[in-house]
Amino acid sequence: MADSAYAPVDFSSWTCPAPLRDHDRIVMGHGGGGTLSAELVEHLFAPAFGNSVLAELGDAAHLRMGGARLAFSTDSFVVRPLFFPGGSIGDLAVNGTVNDLAMAGAVPAYLSCGFILEEGVELSVVGRVAEAMGEAARTAGVLVATGDTKVVDAGHGDGVFINTAGIGLIPDGVDIRPQRAAPGDVVLVSGPIGVHGVAIMSVREGLEFGVEIQSDTASLAGLVADMLAVCPDLHVLRDPTRGGLATSLNEIAAAARVGITLDERSLPVPETVANACAFLGLDPLYVANEGKLVAFVAAEHADAVLAAMRAHPLGKESVAIGHCVPDHPGMVVAATGLGGTRVVDMPLGEQLPRIC
């Protein structure tokens, strides 16, 4: 058939879950916590705001004011739907920022809260969100000390968006940073992974998997305090939210220039999550969590820290999943049950958009 029989193809209208990286406009993948997010920060925001505090690019900034060491973090929450099994955008907003502070070893103290409300949203909905925030703050032992409210025109929002920022005090002797991961460190995770992302997707798409999957959203500050009580020299803590456990591990490997080897058979993936991910074509390693942490601990302290984690209600299913190695620096690999290995790479964008 002659070439003239074919109509020209307009590639500009095509979309895909892993957007091409050569573009001049924001795409959903830029908010997914993967490679696109990292490039946006590295090449656009960091040069514009450049300073030594920001350069560490942790979940919380480490600050000094007088003799005090503070952690300072901010986060925005645009989850859809606003209410989901196990939680809502309200408690998610509190727990997310509290956990970012806790991952710096800080004792969370104060939060700010900014509401962006769409014209027409029911006051009863806003009230339920605010009540959930208040209850989560009381549970976490923090005060919502200041806030702001803006309203946008109907059709220019999605009901309720929330921004929170938080401040916490870092105890003396605590130095928790991704750069401190070292060969020989044991990698611990505090429980089943992938639960939050699958819970969101199940209600968003009206899917049923035989049992209700509930989000794991929770404040991890108490768990971290118990871990520090037995080992003040924790090397790294991270809550694997956007981009899941795989993204957090890749970020840590890159920051510390170490390799990470996982035992794939030790990864705590619940059967319900595994089945849902198989149905949806997802990898649980890349699915978001909101009430789990990953810890890097020197081998001589790993057993004590693991025992402390298992003694806490939020860490009773904690397991060791791997260790740091001097080989393949900056890369994460998983040892499979068949005796081989596979690379666990950084995702380009996000498998599940709008999950936090």
Automatic annotation (TrEMBL):
PurM-like C-terminal domain mapped to chain residues: 183-328
Domain of life assignment: Bacteria
Residue ranges crossing the lipid bilayer per the database entry: none
UniProt-listed InterPro entries: HypE (IPR011854), PurM-like_C_dom (IPR010918), PurM-like_C_sf (IPR036676), PurM-like_N (IPR016188), PurM-like_N_sf (IPR036921)
Residue ranges of every copy of the PurM-like N-terminal domain listed in the record: 59-170
Signal peptide limits: none
Family membership noted in the UniProt record: Belongs to the HypE family.
Protein name stated in the entry: Hydrogenase expression/formation protein HypE
UniProt organism field: Streptomyces populi
Taxonomic lineage from the root: Bacteria, Bacillati, Actinomycetota, Actinomycetes, Kitasatosporales
